[in-house]
Amino acid sequence: MVDSRFYPPGRNFSIAELAGFLNAEIKHGDGDASINGVSSLADAALHDIAFYNDAKYKNDLSATKAGALLISPKQDVDISDCPSAILHVENPYKSYALMAQKIFPEQALAKPVAGIQKEPISPDSVIGDGVDIGYGTVICAGVEIGDGTTIGANVVIGPGCVVGRRSVIGANSVVQYALIGDDVHIHPNVSIGQDGFGYAPDLSGHVKIPQLGRVIIQSDVNIGAGSDIDRGTLEDTVIGEGTKLDNQVHVGHNVRIGRHCLIAGQVGFAGSSIIEDYVMCGGQVAFNGHIHVGKGARILGASTVVKNVPAGQEVAGYPAQAASEWRKEIALLSRLLKIRKPMKSK
Q: Which residues form the signal peptide (predicted)?
């Protein structure tokens, strides 16, 4: 559900109006029903539109409460008992992106966080006791900052954000669409809550998907200098309690990192990865999107993780595999190189 603390209500359209905009055929349901939101299949409510384009979400499709669904006529699904209106479109993902832009046009434009504000600290913000605020910092309307927090110079905290008690936000950092817990240390030049990298690919031009989620940073988290954490598309991007991120870590949209993880520098998490508690990750590791890493797993530096990692396993290499097997392969290659006969020159 879109958080009204950060986003204005979506614009209302009838299903028939949306079908006309997409040049889509209504195959099932009431064209007069109203739609004012977008959602995933699992979380959709009566006034939301969602899309279906992958058989692995068939269970979500059968249980969805969406008011309207975007489905390709090529999909083999039974819609006879579906309570949702069905709009047949050639590319459901692209059509969803266009619907999200139409219902939430302001987010499609990705306007600057602060907008026009006459005073650096909005009178509509709530600042706790003992808060130190550096020179040049901008705090927008609806912001709440807990007691004893320190905010460095030239920080921007966007509308509606919450920062807990005794936290530190380093100079030149930007925080938007975020809820931040107590005792969080954000080092300088960190960006939190900017648009995730979301586009529906299409040969006629890629279509931007409005990012309508939030960033949730739980208590006792450390975020290293130069790191960036994208807000979610619809779901939240989450950093769990006690997790420590080194410098220049990128966290893509919808990523969920568990509690007490240790993430070394220059690690990149592609969108919708799930990292469970107590995971340790060496520097420069790359995670493919939609990866699930189990509790207590260890990822050696410079690995590329392209498939799920079981709980407690240590992995390494490109692509990442069990570290014991990776070490055997490296040792074997080394021996082969030593015994290889040199090529005779002609």
A: none
